[in-house]
Amino acid sequence: MVSVKELVELKCLRSIPLNYVCLKNSEDSILYSENENIPTIDFSQLTSSNLNERFNAIQQLGDACRDWGFFMLINHGISETLRNEVLRTSHMFFNLPEKEKMEYAGQDVFDPIKYGTSFNVMEEKTLFWRDFLKCYVYPHFDAPSKPPDFRETLEEFSTKGREVAKGLLKGISLSLGLEEKYIHERMKVELGSQVLAINCYPPCPNPELAMGLPAHTDHGLLTLLMQNEFDGFQVQWNGKWIPVHPLPNSLLINIGDHMEILTNGKYKSVVHRAVVNGKGTRISVGTAHGPSLDTHVGPVPELLADHNPPAYRAIKYRDYIRLQQTNQLNNKSCLDRIRI
């Protein structure tokens, strides 16, 4: 396995190898205006003791989940100092000697720590301009011990991220007309799975030809995402791509596949992708929050009716992750495999 970072540094590339050239259709370059009004949710209002303020925030949250499947979250309580430290130490991890990173080159989807490149090099004909580190950080915490302070920083960030996710899940339950702890209890979130994925997109000599990650959706209920100063995250809305420029100190939140399954399609798992640039290394840190691995997830009875029958077959969360992670992305959602 040759990482993208190693490829760039060893070859002094002026153009990318042919196996990294992504064939794109004409729609890939069509973007909405930079001024598109992406929803913003204020977490402090969502958890406020002021009932009117909280009610309005819950309504806004429901609208964002239904209409976009994506929003920016402000006033979430994760300090700028901690977020910057996560990005700094993540960058340091990818700067480690390749031999040290390869100690974590796992083979199985459920390896506690897995370092790799592209998405699934065993299946892909075209490789993606991306190196990654994935760690299962809950219910058991795993992370590399190098570089210094990396493990401790990720553990603190993961813990605070779970608190944010729990608050959002309460708001989402209420926005659906369910009890506040409905999703939390039905999905066994207390025993649930939290996967941290750190992506490194080195500068690319031909960014118009390569792709960091193609169009896809995320498994799980919610994904919390942050990035360094280089943009590259794009969401698909009404069939077109919108470049996302996060507000200062915000987190990007997208609805995952299992929230779409649970709500029988009312709340959409948003298709998104990562593009690359020729200016500098983009680092993104995402945490996917899902049910326990052995939980069967299907549409919940309270949201079904004669005119709204189940649209997805129930599937164990563990089996869904394996299904998604062992196949090519193919610019499609894995949800297509379980639609009724």
Automatic annotation (TrEMBL):
It holds the Pfam family DIOX_N. It is found in: Cytoplasm; Nucleus. Involved in the regulation of shoot development and salicylic acid (SA) homeostasis. This is Fe2OG dioxygenase domain-containing protein. Residues 191-291 form the Fe2OG dioxygenase domain. GO terms for molecular function: L-ascorbic acid binding; metal ion binding; oxidoreductase activity. GO terms for cellular component: cytoplasm; nucleus. PROSITE patterns: FE2OG_OXY (PS51471). SUPFAM superfamilies: Clavaminate synthase-like. Belongs to the iron/ascorbate-dependent oxidoreductase family. Keywords: Cytoplasm, Iron, Metal-binding, Nucleus, Oxidoreductase, Vitamin C. InterPro entries: DIOX_N (IPR026992), IPNS-like_FE2OG_OXY (IPR044861), IPNS-like_sf (IPR027443), Oxoglu/Fe-dep_dioxygenase_dom (IPR005123), Plant_2OG-oxidoreductases (IPR050295).
